[in-house]
Write a structure and sequence with these properties.
This protein is of the alpha+beta class and 352 residues long. Strands 1, 2, 3, 4, 5 and 6 form a 6-stranded mixed beta sheet that branches. Strand 2 and strand 3 form a beta hairpin. 31% of the residues are buried.
């Protein structure tokens, strides 16, 4: 066993200090206190436990006790000073180690989610945090009413809930740009579902989006971006589901891939609604509610706080203005696609 592996190594000079302090009755000097702090830092860096080292200090004090020439009170005061200084140095080293670990974790997460750094090096760093980037991963993103940082109570609460149920299981819970993130192996969908449940509760009704499982380090970035896009789509479309899955929303990026074509469809199919009294928005909201409830007039009327007769009148008005009948299956797909496009493009609030 080397000196640094032996806990007694961190008590060097301790017996001499006790003997002199007991003989003279003086307190420890500044240099002696600083030497104890330095030894405490070294012990923490070497991986020793504080409890064992405090026990070694007390054992050494008992061994030196018969030789102490001063009073018991003086000797105990010296032991207290030594242990206090030693523990302060130990804790200071631990705090520094924690800050370094947090900085390394933050840097890794930033590099991972931005697709930076050499992929081989990134994979090596990932193993330190329990991730194997050769496997597929999926990312869930939770957005609440407030912004969250790594050490805040909400992220810690969600992480504890996941670890309590699944252990670590190669799960990484973190924050990015004020949102909560969970990165998990792609085949462990139950983990992301549980994260969504816990995050929804912890954020007081926040919204969670889950990206599709994707392979490799670049797959983590892709899944993360899918989850972010799902949150953005939900905001633009006014979706009220608490949990969104990117796989269920793939039709929307397809519809908006050719923005000009979509704008042309919106203006051609729905543009005549702008001539209605009060503008297009009321009739557009009517179509949205009608299509969202599966074209069931009674349910659409209930959502809009209208009578069925009033709703029917509005649908007839839309038919008259646009030439397309929302109740006719032949016209329905075109109108519904145009309504989705209008929501995505924020029409009529924004000119197309």
């Amino acid at each position: 066993m080397t000196d640094r592996e032996n806990p007694v190594h961190y008590l060097r000079g301790y017996a001499e200090i006790l003997a002199e302090v007991s003989a003279t009755g003086r307190r420890l000097t500044r240099e002696e206190i600083e030497s104890r702090r330095a030894l405490g830092e070294q012990a923490a860096d070497a991986g020793h436990g504080l409890r064992t080292l405090v026990s070694e200090h007390l054992t050494a004090a008992r061994s030196a006790w018969p030789h102490a020439l001063g009073s018991a009170d003086t000797a105990l005061a010296a032991v207290q000073q030594v242990i206090d200084a030693f523990a302060e140095g130990f804790e200071r080293a631990q705090r520094h180690a924690v800050r370094q670990e947090e900085a390394a974790r933050r840097e890794f997460i930033d590099d991972l989610l931005y697709g930076r750094s050499d992929l081989g090096r990134l994979a090596e760093r990932a193993e330190r945090f329990g991730m194997r980037l050769s496997h597929a991963h999926a990312v869930a993103v939770a957005q609440g009413p407030a912004a969250y940082d790594e050490g805040d109570p909400v992220p810690r609460q969600v992480e504890r809930a996941l670890i309590a149920r699944f252990g670590d299981r190669n799960i990484l819970v973190t924050t990015k740009d004020g949102r909560l993130l969970c990165i998990a192996p792609g085949h462990q969908e139950v983990v992301l579902a549980h994260f969504a449940k816990q995050a929804y509760a912890a954020t007081d009704g926040g919204r969670v989006a889950i990206g599709r499982p994707q392979p490799g380090a670049g797959g983590v970035v892709q899944s993360y971006e899918e989850a972010l896009n799902a949150l953005e789509l939900a905001e633009r479309l006014g979706l009220d589901e608490p949990v969104l899955r990117a796989a269920d929303l793939l039709v929307y990026p397809v519809l908006t891939r050719d923005r000009q074509a979509m704008a042309d469809l919106v203006l051609d199919a729905l543009g005549p609604l702008t001539t209605a009294r009060g503008g297009a928005q009321v009739l557009l909201d009517t179509l949205t509610a009608y299509f969202d409830c599966g074209c069931v007039a009674a349910e659409a009327a209930r959502r809009l706080s209208l009578s069925v007769r009033a709703l029917t009148y509005r649908l007839e008005r839309i038919h008259k203005l646009t030439g397309a009948n929302p109740a006719d299956p032949a016209h329905r797909y075109m109108l519904q696609t145009a309504v989705i496009g209008a929501r995505l493009l924020d029409w009529p609030a924004q000119n197309l």
